[in-house]
Amino acid sequence: MNLDQLRDALAGGLPLVEAPLRGWETRAALGVTTSGSTGAPKTVLLSASALLASAEATHARLGGPGTWLLALPTTHIAGIQVLVRSIVAGTTPVAMDLAAGFRPMGFAVDARPVLAAPGRHYTALVPTQLARIVAGEGPGLAALRSFDAVLIGGAATPAPLLEHARSLGVRVVTTYGMTETAGGCVYDGVPLDGVEVSTDGVISLAGPMLALGYLGGPQFGTWFRTGDLGRFADGRLSVLGRADDVIVTGGANVAPTLVEQALIGVDGVREACVVGVPDEEWGQAVVAAVVGSASEDVLREAVRSLVGREAVPKRLAFVSSLPLRGPGKVDRAAVAASFR
């Protein structure tokens, strides 16, 4: 997909869907296949109005349209939305060549024409990319500081990484959303204009950027139940992870996200993934893959004090990196398999 094809689809031209469309599906401008990180991959059908509503709401929140640096693949909604926002803004995005992977120096080079353009300047990254840039004081960080907003999504961003990036002068904006909401629809915990949030423990979302439905499946209603756990209070949403990721160990429910936050809060830990694996005694045992270095006793004590003794990992594995599935999303199934 290129910019001209997407512009045509948004204007009512040929839909960018690699399958025949029937009934309500014919209203789609674009089909995006999910990463499958929460189940089997599905093709999400999005209307032009949903994509445009998302782009316009983003501009309203960030302070107006601008020029974008595309640092994400356009096979996923986060990258596609950079193109949509550019079309709405009437600007031309600069696309990084990611064939050899993401490099901070490459980011710095490709940021130059974006930052030289008049008006506001934006980019969107996943947490891994942000971590690589802020790890050093090189040209990549200097360029990143110059953007008016840096959207971070694709996966939960560790709090220490956010704090470090912001302390360095990076204007980070955390985003929550999914392909089914045409991308991020909650920024820094606050819903974009037009977005409604409801939670009974599990987050549901509504608004003009909601997808039509899944290809070959039923059409969505007014509300989309995300399957994510969360709390919505005083107009701010806190996301606590996937409902189907909850670990039942010895009769107690453990939210992996809370354990991961406790582990990442320990000095020397950059990333962590917590999963449950079958266990004859406990039903499921809490285990953790950790990127970084720290004493196992210190890690377990951090979890015990912040989350509870039932959440303390039975096993810890130190790894050089976490397996990914989709843009910045940890492959939890692969992590679990590594403990079996």
Overview in brief:
29% of the residues lie in helices and 29% in strands. The protein has ten helices and 19 strands. Helix 4 (104-116) packs parallel to helix 6.
Provide an overview of this structure:
Strands 4-3-5-6-7-8-9 form a seven-stranded mixed sheet, with helices on both faces. It has two domains: 3-241, Rossmann fold, CATH 3.40.50; 246-338, GMP Synthetase, Chain A, domain 3 (2-Layer Sandwich). With 340 residues, the protein is of the alpha/beta class. The mean pLDDT is 94. It starts with a helix and ends with a helix. It is built from ten helices and 19 strands. Residues 33-192 form the AMP-dependent synthetase/ligase domain. This is AMP-binding protein. One of its GO terms (biological process) is fatty acid metabolic process. Keywords: Ligase.
Key descriptive features of the protein:
340 residues; alpha/beta; four-stranded antiparallel sheet; 10 helices; GMP Synthetase, Chain A, domain 3; 19 strands; single chain; Rossmann fold
Number of domains: 2
Helical segment tally? 10
Mean pLDDT: 94
SSE string: HEEHEHEHEHHEHEEEEEEEEEEHEEHEH
CATH class of the largest domain: Alpha Beta
Which structural class do you get from the secondary structure elements? alpha/beta
> Biggest sheet: strands side by side, in what order?
4-3-5-6-7-8-9
State which percent range the strand residues make up: 25-35%
Number of strands: 19
> What CATH architecture label of the largest domain applies?
3-Layer(aba) Sandwich
Main β-sheet description: 7 strands, mixed
CATH topology of the largest domain: Rossmann fold
Protein name: AMP-binding protein
Domain AMP-binding enzyme C-terminal: 259-329
GO molecular function, one term: medium-chain fatty acid-CoA ligase activity
Domain AMP-dependent synthetase/ligase: 33-192
